[in-house]
């Protein structure tokens, strides 16, 4: 198996001709396709291939978000296994055929955010919800900010040159934590993410809220919000 040093094809996984592409962690590899390899065409085999490719891309994007990667690091003994942990957990949580099933962005479920809605715009999207309140175990004496982070799954491309499925990661900005006011958070996408974002008609967002102390250390996380 060879490692690709200068990646020009983007995130590639699966087979192409006589070679097989794999992504291990953030590193792409290419290997010779076995001569006896015959891909199954039954529904179960097709799902496994589609699910594996989807979870691989989803996990890579989750892993790329520094603050989320750090949260996952506490759940593994060997830090080189963080990506594999994210992949394994999401293989049994997310579903390539049912994007409403959500994703697992952190090891723990976190506090509940209720009555959420997403409004997508050209270069940004808006998250609204009920106030968080202290019933969620949030201590405003310690937790001062809230940070939205997550990924967006994109399908139904407007361009023949774009892949049929794309996933982008995003990190919002620190918002002042106010437990009495409904959330009204705008997340602006930066290039190149917003360029990819506008190439697709279908968007599914998986987002968590992370509370931070005055030194921007993470304290609590929310459940995964899907919209």
Task: Please specify the SSE layout and strand pairing.
Elements: E1 2-3, E2 14-16, E3 19-24, E4 27-32, H1 43-63, H2 66-73, H3 82-91, E5 117-120, E6 124-129, E7 145-157, E8 165-171, E9 175-176, E10 183-188, H4 193-197, E11 200-212, E12 218-221, E13 225-226
Antiparallel strand pairs: 1-4, 2-3, 3-4, 5-6, 6-10, 7-8, 7-9, 7-11, 11-12, 11-13
Describe this structure in words.
With 227 residues, the chain is α+β, with helices and mostly antiparallel strands. It folds into two domains: 1-37, no CATH class; 103-226, Immunoglobulin-like (Sandwich), CATH 2.60.40. It contains four helices and 13 strands. The strands form three sheets. Strands 7, 8, 9, 11, 12 and 13 form a six-stranded antiparallel β-sheet that branches. Helix 1 crosses helix 3 (82-91). It is globular, with a radius of gyration of 19 Å.
